Amino acid sequence: MKTDESTPYQRLVQELDHRCQQMATGDLCFSTHDKDGKFHLFYGRLLYVTTERHQVRRWKRAVLKYCPDWQPSSALLTFDQSTTPWEYQMLYEGVAREKISLTQAKIVIRQVSLEVLFSLARYTDISLEWKPSSEKKTHLSLGLALSFSEIEQIFTRAAQMQQQWQTAGLSSIHPNLSPASKKKLNPQSLSGLAQYLDGRFTLWDISLRMGKSVISITRALVPLIKKGILQLRQIPDLSTPLPTPTGATSASVRSPQTTPKTPFLIACIDDSPVVAQSLRKILEPAGYKVVGIQDPIKALAQIAEQKPDLIFLDLIMPNANGYTVCQFLRNAPLFEKTPVIILTSQDNVIDRSRAKLVGASDFLVKPPQPQETLELVRKYLPQSSKV
After folding, report:
1. Residues 36 and 149 occupy one common structural domain
2. What is residue 16's three-state secondary structure?
3. 76 and 93 in contact (C-beta within 8 Å)?
4. Could you give the number of structural domains in the chain?
5. Are residues 194 and 143 in the same domain?
6. Which positions does the record annotate as the modified residue 4-aspartylphosphate (predicted)?
7. What is the pLDDT of residues 245-290, one digit of tens each?
């Protein structure tokens, strides 16, 4: 009989790989004797990693390091943490509103994941539980959530860091601990390190502020700890940036006498602004509203925010293709029933068949002709406005 000699950390990697290959949506919950948390997955991609300990500290460190000029606002969030972590929602808003770049947002997710996995790599008692979710309403971007290949790189780096930590003789110390001096130190001593030894900062925090690795910072403090000059202690997390609900919102208690009609919103995802303009000239006089989206990467974030009633989708775009975008939309509960009409100049049986396979509702040849376009839109949106 073959014995399973894989470590709990390796089994965690294998379980995540399995869920990613399944294109699973849900939370992979992990638990140790003193730590609990979740890997939040959406169709096999990692949205974010959360833990009960120092969740806010970890988030603020990563944002301060990689998005120093950004001031995240919680005013526009849905605050439904049961479906999507607030950290991910803030990153989404930052990218969608062009306050931070997609690269910055992904680095924040990677850094947070790295710190969590660095801690997990030392445990021998990791238990796992998969909690699937049949519906997960969230703002999404194909480029923002991490694929397993990206996750695997973080796992490898975290294991290497933990090995270096152990080799440096720091196995009895956790970087979430805060060093506090038992006597007053000169702020200029220890190359400026002394100013952070007042029990307000964790070793992770000090590493960020000093611009040095957490291993080098901790090694520098070990002699003071052994001499009893410093003591390591647990400190609480920072306050959450989310507002505390005080009751029903104005929207939830508002009961207007009449509900105004709203025009149906139609999104045109096409790298050419000419196509969107052509659709506007055809559809807006008929009472529809058309929004043009040229960037295929930012498109998913924008349509998630605006929730169009119908989508025109180009097949050939820079860095993406319409088939991939269409399939992703169909896999997302938010858009699984939204009519998606493929726009292309390639009118042939192969393209039409492939479009149907990925869930396209219909097919429209470029350039769009007024009568054909209106008939197609009215087929899926019979009225020019909705209540």
Report:
1. yes
2. helix
3. yes
4. 3
5. no
6. 314
7. 444 343 333 334 444 457 889 999 888 889 999 999 999 888 889 9
